[in-house]
User: Which sequence fits this backbone?
């Protein structure tokens, strides 16, 4: 387990998570900084779907706003039109809302913050309860004006160096950079050129706007960084309105300021950008208290990837069926797999927030979802690898509807009726012709208890001419049902089953980790593509389910007794022909071990 998770217990604590950023925010609230107001934001670039790493940031930012009665803005950091798409914008809105709904209500925040700050521009209310995003691109006009202000103050200039020369002049961490020959242009010339850049007079790459800071700074980000570049490309949100676009560093701090953000929280790789963040804001004459940037360690999860660019590649190369493939570490993939928002939020609480990069074990995520689904999901019986059992001493045509508990963890979940009849299916693995040591389930002459039903004894086997097992013959103890005279008999194993004539046929998809190595990114030999797990998806098309599962609605979650947690697929499942995804096994590694030894 990583450093990040060390020390955090699995208990679902009610108290808000404490960590260094929490301490900072709490001290500011207490000292009345920003008039005691807390404004955070989650600023994804819409160039891919959100992943579990983003969930960490969402929980942190919305969690702080929630705890301190502040606000958290969802902001599209959309300053790079070439890589961004509306599909991504829409998926981000859906995923963030799914993750926070019912937990961090943005409109509750709006009301509270509206009275205390007077800054406006907080969560937008579109008349429904969906959190609507802000767009950095909505501020292009204001950001452009701020750029003009820097130029007029002699703090920015138009540079005609080519991108290659700009790079060359910048120097290296141990070699100072060299001033651009365009550094001393007059304010008038700079204003004129910047306006003409905006008017579309120059081709891509011809000129940039650069901050005039210090070409010999040990911090390479302060060596006259580019603030604006020319890009004649249509933007998914602003259309053809602009052909100059601000760089991330310039747009980000200003967007934070415009929205009244107080604590701008990002991942550690932005630590070196912080002096530039402060320089830009301090160089402008801004009347309000300035936002400050704080950094925390990004989430890295074992056996998967945590980069939108690489996840996009898996999608494009059809390694997975899409961004929401249940094997993907994306929020949409986890949702389709059966993860609940609560389990993901709990996971984010368990990993904590630190300044140390480490690798988090996938088993912690699985732990979180098991814990949540154990409390919430109805139990049901499903047989994934069926073999038929014919019960010789049970009357032909008779059907009993036996009472089954929906959820032993939740008495309010009630009961359901499960049909029992002369022919049932059990798991192929629950039978062995020649039992291994310590195998207590079904074998010729042995007894098992059928869940909610009778004690069953295997008496013989039916095989085809090649010796393949076709069915089992059995008898049952007629008094061994719950409440019967022999119900209390000691039997070592209980197995699940499904009545054959009542069974619903279904496809069940079992998932395993996408990669065979813990850090596919870092592994040697041909990049991550060569470490794909060929067994990450197993499709079982001959499964049989108890009839109550026939009407499972897409997205509905169950615990299949003894097998794990399963969720009706939201895209491929139809009434009468259900498709289930395995969310998680019941125990870490346990089921697999069983399969190996049996
Ligand atoms: P990727 O490399 O996957 O594209 P990114 O950092 O470029 O990630 P953004 O869309 O810029 O993605 O991220 C939005 C926010 O989510 C940022 O504040 C970023 O710091 C945070 N974030 C991204 N990845 C992680 C992660 N693995 N753990 C925690 N926070 C993350
Ligand atoms: Mg980014």
Assistant:
């Amino acid at each position: 387990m990583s450093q990040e998770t060390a020390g955090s217990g699995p208990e679902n604590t009610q108290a808000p998570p404490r960590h260094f950023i929490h301490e900072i925010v709490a001290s500011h609230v207490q000292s009345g900084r920003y008039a005691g107001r807390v404004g955070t934001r989650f600023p994804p670039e819409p160039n891919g779907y959100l992943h579990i790493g983003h969930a960490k940031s969402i929980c942190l930012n919305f969690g702080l706003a929630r705890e301190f009665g502040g606000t958290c803005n969802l902001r599209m950091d959309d300053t790079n039109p070439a890589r961004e798409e509306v599909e991504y914008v829409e998926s981000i809105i859906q995923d963030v809302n799914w993750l926070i709904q019912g937990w961090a209500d943005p409109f509750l925040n709006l009301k509270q913050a509206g009275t205390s700050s007077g800054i406006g521009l907080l969560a937008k209310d579109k008349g429904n309860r969906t959190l609507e995003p802000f767009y950095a691109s909505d501020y292009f006009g204001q950001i452009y004006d701020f750029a003009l202000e820097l130029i007029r103050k002699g703090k920015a200039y138009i540079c005609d160096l080519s991108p290659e020369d700009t790079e060359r002049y910048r120097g290296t961490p141990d070699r100072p950079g060299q001033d651009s020959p365009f550094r001393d242009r007059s304010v008038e010339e700079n204003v004129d050129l910047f306006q003409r850049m905006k008017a579309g007079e120059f081709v891509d790459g011809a000129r940039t706007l650069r901050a005039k800071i210090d070409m010999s700074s040990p911090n390479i980000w302060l060596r006259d960084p580019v603030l604006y570049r020319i890009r004649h490309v249509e933007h998914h949100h602003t259309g053809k309105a602009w052909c100059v676009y601000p760089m991330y560093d310039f747009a980000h701090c200003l967007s934070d300021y415009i929205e009244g953000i107080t604590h701008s929280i990002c991942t550690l790789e932005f630590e070196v950008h912080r002096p530039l963040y402060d320089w830009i804001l301090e160089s402008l004459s801004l009347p309000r208290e300035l936002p400050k940037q704080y950094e925390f360690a990004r989430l890295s999860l074992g056996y998967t990837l945590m980069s939108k660019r690489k996840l996009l590649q898996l999608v494009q190369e059809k390694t997975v069926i899409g961004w929401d493939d249940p094997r993907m570490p994306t929020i949409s993939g986890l949702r389709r797999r059966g993860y609940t928002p609560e389990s993901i939020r709990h996971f984010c609480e368990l990993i904590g927030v630190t300044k140390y990069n480490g690798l988090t074990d996938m088993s912690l995520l699985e732990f979180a979802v098991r814990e949540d689904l154990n409390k919430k999901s109805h139990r049901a019986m499903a047989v994934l690898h069926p073999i038929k059992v014919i019960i010789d001493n049970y009357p032909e045509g008779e059907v009993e509807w036996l009472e089954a508990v929906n959820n032993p963890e939740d008495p309010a979940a009630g009961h359901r009726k499960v049909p029992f009849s002369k022919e049932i299916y059990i798991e192929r693995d629950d039978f062995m012709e020649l039992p291994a040591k310590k195998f207590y389930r079904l074998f010729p002459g042995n007894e098992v208890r059928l869940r909610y039903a009778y004690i069953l004894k295997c008496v013989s086997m039916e095989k085809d001419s090649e010796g393949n097992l076709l069915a089992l013959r059995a008898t049952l103890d007629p008094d061994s049902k719950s409440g019967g005279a022999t119900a209390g008999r000691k039997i070592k194993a209980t197995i699940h089953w499904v009545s054959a004539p009542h069974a619903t046929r279904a496809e069940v998809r079992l998932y395993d980790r996408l990669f065979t190595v813990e850090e596919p990114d870092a592994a040697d030999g041909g990049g991550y593509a060569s470490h794909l797990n060929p067994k990450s998806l197993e499709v079982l098309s001959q499964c049989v389910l108890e009839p109550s599962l026939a009407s499972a609605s897409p997205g509905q979650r169950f615990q299949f007794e003894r097998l794990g947690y399963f969720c009706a697929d939201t895209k491929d499942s139809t009434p009468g022909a259900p498709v289930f995804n395995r969310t998680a096994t019941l125990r870490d590694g346990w089921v697999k071990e069983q399969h190996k030894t049996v």
Observations:
- Residues 45 surround magnesium ion (ligand 2) (CB under 6 Å).
- The two ends are 30 Å apart (CA to CA).
